Amino acid sequence: MKIQNAKRWAPRGSRAWLAAFLALAAASGIRMLLSPFVGPAMPGALFCVAAALIEYFFGLGPALTVMLVGLVIADYLFVPPYADFSVFDHSDLMLVVSYPWVTLLIICLIERLRRAQFRAEMFASVAKSRYEMLLRADNKRALRLRTIDETHRLLRHLPHYHDSIILIQALDRKASLRPDADHAAGTVHALPHTSAPGSRFSAVHPADIERLQNSLSPGSHRLRIRSGDHTYKPVDCVGERFTTHAGDFLVLRIEA
């Protein structure tokens, strides 16, 4: 993968040029303070340092500006004869030859390193983004596998308990968010028009049928079911919830 904008690592705007101006002023002031001690020796050293610092923090353009303006200031103020451009001697030639080449070498090395650093950071950012995408894809895949397993469990469950199934209901997933009393009691509401009666539904007492149509929750239930002599007997039942890709279902069956 190629990073096309690696050269755009440096911050832009007036801040970079203000920093370049302050670096020139600081280098000039410090060099003037050192002039009584060092004389005309190394007139461009501090400007080279200033250009390197500006390059590291603000990029190539401001650093080259600091280098060129620093060359003029160093030659004018710190190379004898001072404050005079009319004389060009060996000292001026040494400054013009040595200072730009050394400064350019340092600036180019720093620029190359900063671009490589920016490229590495971009690679790391892209890798992190792709890793997060893979994690989300894995989570979705795990959820799909879970719903498929639940669907298979439901399909195995239905034939096994076919003769004892009383009712199948499609549950409203948003019902668990309703702050009502039934929710506090752990009840899951069902949509009446999504109920499917099982083979034993017709044998349930009408009052229990009405109660089941209004509310139904997973767990144990006790229903009155008609026996052979047309009387109703209490029977223990169990409601099991299944989460599938088609939705949530609750199967109420007679407990074996």
Order of helices and strands: HHHHEHEHEEE
The strands making up the biggest β-sheet line up spatially as: 2-1-5-4-3
Q: Using only CA atoms, what is the Rg?
A: 41 Å
Helix content: 55-70%
Membrane topology: Multi-pass membrane protein
Organism: Paraburkholderia phenazinium
Protein name: Sensor protein KdpD transmembrane domain-containing protein
GO molecular function, one term: kinase activity
Structure description:
By secondary structure, this protein is of the alpha+beta class. It folds into 2 domains: 6-128, no CATH class; 162-254, Beta-Lactamase (2-Layer Sandwich), CATH 3.30.450. Helix content is 55%, strand content 17%. The protein contains 6 helices and 5 strands. The chain has helices at residues 14-38, 45-58, 60-77, 90-160, 181-184, 206-214; strands at residues 165-171, 190-197, 219-226, 232-244, 247-254. Strands 2-1-5-4-3 form a 5-stranded antiparallel beta sheet, with helices on both faces. Helix 2 (45-58) packs parallel to helix 4. The two termini are 62 Å apart. The model is unreliable at 174-193 (pLDDT under 50). This is Sensor protein KdpD transmembrane domain-containing protein. GO terms for molecular function: ATP binding; kinase activity. The chain crosses the membrane at residues 16-34, 46-73, 93-110.
